[in-house]
Design goal:
This protein has helices spanning about 35-45, 60-65, 80-90, 125-130, 145-155, 160-165, 175-180, 190-195, 230-235, 240-250, and strands at about 25-30, 55, 75, 100, 105-110, 135-140, 165-170, 185-190, 200-205, 215-220. With about 250 residues, the chain is of the alpha/beta class. It folds into two domains: about 25-100 and about 215-250, 3-Layer(aba) Sandwich (D-Maltodextrin-Binding Protein, domain 2); about 105-210, D-Maltodextrin-Binding Protein, domain 2. Strands 2-1-3-10-4 form a five-stranded mixed beta sheet. The chain has a five-stranded mixed beta sheet with strand order 7-6-8-5-9, with helices on both faces. Residues about 1-20 have low confidence and may be disordered.
Amino acid sequence: MWKRAVLLLALAIPQPLSAQPRDELLVFAATSLTEALQDAAKLWEARGEPRPRFNFAASATLARQLDQGAAANLFASADQSWMDWAQTRALIVPETRRTLLGNRLVLIAPADQMPPAVTITPGMNLLALLRPHGRLAIGDPASVPAGTYAKQALTTLGLWTGIEPRLARTENVRAALLLVERGETPLGIVYATDAAVARGVGVVATFPPSLHAPITYPFAIPRAGDTPAARRFLVFLAGPAAAELFNRRGFVTE
């Protein structure tokens, strides 16, 4: 958990992107932030600002798009490693980087196929919950932060080697959520905030935070999209009005 940082934006502001009006914003954000950032965009627009446009995808996909020359005004990653990756390639303005949110990892099942109560403990029989031919839906650990956290948790529990052949790997966390919601897999591992927006799933158990690295969301302004509007929007997202919206969606903000 973090104390909210005061954003000191005293750096010289470069010229805005020529491809869009000065105050328009294009935000690259992790899929799990979809509803929360759309809420924030509505409030931003209500304050007289142009409504931001969004590109929601896996953090790895977004970081690579920036590396390939995509012009965005804000990048919000679902973990620190992909923001680090972008920073080492000089794709973001380091002084604008702020960790604003946290999350939790949960085990989910279709709402009409909920298993008995489960306690997350080392050596738990997760395979039995999958039944003979079922798979566990998770974001691909190679590129999806939710999948990376899931692998860390399962490894800590001593379950990864046995469960790996039974994974249904997806391109982002919402795709894993959808597999469970449709009943195509009996279980999945997603963020608590994702489970909260799905009507067709239930939370079987919550993973203790000690099983994986802290789930944090760093935000930063890409160098190619560093405009006054981008900086104002980041200040807004770090402020109390946006924090209230994030809290309502289940994110940890302090």
